[in-house]
Amino acid sequence: MGLNIVLTDCNGEFIERIDDPKNILHKLLPPADGASDSLLSKIDWYGDTYFNHLQIGRFLKEWDRLEQRAEASEEKALIVGVRRLAVRCQNDRALLRFIGD
After folding, report:
1. Rounded Cα distance, 85 and 96, in Å
2. Which helix (H) or strand (E) is 73 found in, with range?
3. Mean pLDDT of all residues in 56-76
């Protein structure tokens, strides 16, 4: 089971969701690393990770680099979908949540 990526408002109400049932992000995202400065390396595969509108600018810069590594159409579609949620997070002051197993 892969990550579920959910956009919620400030009250935790669901706005939109993208699922990764084939675990595509696991091979594209950097490995979890507490010592790294990378935001993407902080995504917890087994717990929940939240990004707010203040973090999304940096998140999107790292996501751009991740997008360049995507090759298959399925990978690209997932990356574009998560980017769309991240942009909404930034514009709507929402929360982008990665939900692990």
Report:
1. 7
2. helix 73-92
3. 95
Q: How many CB atoms lie within 10 A of CB 41?
A: 15
Q: Between β-strands 4-8 and 14-19, what pairing exists: parallel, antiparallel or unpaired?
A: antiparallel
Q: What span, in angstroms and rounded, lies between the C-alpha atoms of 93 and 41?
A: 23
Q: Is the dihedral of CA 36, 31, 16, 88 positive or negative?
A: positive
Placement of tokens 């669901």 in the chain: 14
Q: What is the pLDDT of residues 33-42, one digit of tens each?
A: 777 889 999 9
In this predicted model, what pLDDT tens digit does every residue of 76-93 receive, in sequence order?
999 999 999 999 999 999
Q: Find, among 10, 5, 16, the residue nearest to 93 by Cα.
A: 10
- The backbone region for 74, taken as left when phi is positive above 0, alpha when psi lies in -120 to 50, beta otherwise, is alpha
